[in-house]
Predict the 3D structure of the following.
Amino acid sequence: MWLTSKIKQLLMVMKPGVVTLNYPHERPPVPANLRGQPVFDHQKCIGCGGCSDHCPARCILVRDVCQELRVMLYDGSRCTYCGRCADICPEQAITMSNSFEIACDQKEDITTRMELFMMTCQRCGRCYEMEKTNAIDRINLKGFRYDNLEQRALIRKTSETFDPTLLQQSDQYQRPSTKE
Amino acid sequence: MSKRKELEAKLIARLRDDVVCVEKTDPRTIFIDVKRAGIREASKIITNAGARYLCSVGYDNIERDGTLGMIHTFALDDSDQFVCCRTSAPENDAIIESITPDLPSAGWSEREVTDLLGLRFAGHPKPKKLVLADDWPDGIYPLRKDVPHNLVPKGAEDVAYELDEAPPGTKIVPVGPFHPSLHEPEHFAVYVDGETIKGCDYRGFMTHRGIEKLCTTQISYNEVPFIAERICGICGSVHATAFSQAVESAAGLVIPRRAEFIRTMMLEFERIHSNLLWLGVAGHLIGFDTVFMQAWRVREQIMWLCERLTGNRKTYGMILVGGVRRDITPEIADDIRRVMKTIEDDLAIIHRAIEKDTSIHKRTKGVGTITKQQALDWSLVGPVARARGVDIDARRDHPYAAYDEMKFEVPVLDSCDVWATLVIRVIETFEAIKIVRQCLEKMPGGEFFVEMKDSIPAQRHAITVVEAPRGESVHYVITGEDNRPERWRVRAPTFPNLQAVPLMLLDEQFGDFPIIMGSIDPCFSCTDRVAVVDLQTGQASSISKAELDALSRQQQARHASLKG
Ligand code: SF4
Ligand code: SF4
């Protein structure tokens, strides 16, 4: 029994031979609809903030530095490549590219920053909600947003009109702590 | 339905005034509210009626009525029913009678609730810390609503976990937190007499990520499946499906049949890849790396298939509340058929080559035995239970997705050892391939996603189970305001199975520790999903925390000087 098993095992190993690819010299085929690194198109983005609202990793941040200027920051170091942002974007401004070899030393290399001129938009979320009708996909954070980009912290306090004090407060943002 | 009526009548007759109300809204689930004085009696009556204990859920209700809630959940496997027995205790007198003396597998659930919510259990046989880090300060209960999700607490000083007393005449062999035979960090203190294991104590929960807290404070319903998927690197779709089903059930949303079929397929893909992975790991643990290499070679086929289908080899991201994200096109269907054929053939070759191998038999037969009764007492699940003659499978007993239309065998063996687990997982892989084929054959056309018309009302409770490759996962959801759940409890299959490991190890050889441990296919990350940010372990008997700290500081200083 022992010997026949061993012979069978030998055949099992011989038949397929070597299957390991000699990566990186040999590359496996990348499927067409791979969910790789998301790429943002600033021409298409309307700055609705929907992607930021629905990113499970909360790695898309939104900061209104004044009435007209909205800064959006995508921090690739925390991205899970789920593709939720691309699904949710009403303008198809996000594509899940097929680039996946994105390990790097500098966080900045995989960070995307967009500065969007917002015209007179009051950030009511209406433009987003006209496209997205699923009740559980609505925008939760409407109005002006003040995420802390340095600390990469999403701040859940928003205001209906631009509020310089909130902007300033967000600069001092600190994680709650019981350490003295 | 008659069994349900019978149970209700029994409860009311025996407990009288202690039963507050019996909710009948959901045909599959009975919610019973009892006063806290009657909770132990109630759970006894429920188990005597043939119910199997699942898990317990604690929740913070302080803002609403000043109480902490506690829910014990059970399943009636022969009549596809769940029983949720709810009770509560006021915050200023947060103590409830423990049910662990009657149901040993409730031990961890209760300890977890004590850690996370500060609800205590009178008569608990081992009221030690379970989930929180040793240096987590007293009096901060992370799952309470008033504790922020990103709190950085000040660590307590000089605290270490007290391991259980070693039985007389034994020596302690520490295994872990990092050990070659373990794939994730946890600590076992194994008490040995010579080569024979006489007992063991476990200190785990070292990979907490605070997932439950995060999902109930930060993100909305449709993002939770993506985080749920990351509870486990292996059975991701299981958790995403279970969560989505719970929310759908709470919201009364019916998803398209096609979506249910696609979910079923995703779950079976996951079973195939997980079983092959485990087969390889089991081979590796007994030093038989040929099995490891070959099983993983075959497995690669399914990984690539899933990559083509979902955009990723793991963490498929297919499941959403309301259906699935991508459809199965005719081309991908052909692809699936082809890959299933390859895997079936290749696995058959492996199976034939190892089934009669005496070295595998010697290492696995009669190893890690526990009796069927013990398996029942400890509420074991999945292949580990089925290898001990316990005939349970959530796919058949509590059908979800499209399993009601599928025909498949549930293999049950009674040799009660690691070998039986191995055989079962191989058979289940073949069964999974059959299920995938049936799905392709019977799949109806139409939509694969449905939108939610209205937001989900708060304060609805729902429970679902999904059979993961390693056993059944239980998800309990309480819906909340702000488009996110108020409480979400995940009980992964390793949670009950791991609790029985000391029993499986008893009187075994120390050399078999890795394979016995590995036979339950432990997933510590799933089990540890619960609590909070900060981690630190004191390694008990041999070195003090101060020494350890000093050592690691020295080490760091050395690195720094080398660099500088
Ligand atoms: S891919 Fe997912 S994690 Fe990454 S930015 Fe988009 S939504 Fe966030
Ligand atoms: S969802 Fe699209 S349009 Fe809206 S902010 Fe994000 S990228 Fe821009």
Chain B touches chain A through 51 residues (CB under 8 Å). The domain at 211-532 of chain B is CATH 1.10.645.10 (Cytochrome-c3 Hydrogenase; chain B). The longest strand of chain B covers residues 52-61. Chain B has three domains: 2-162, 211-532, 534-564.
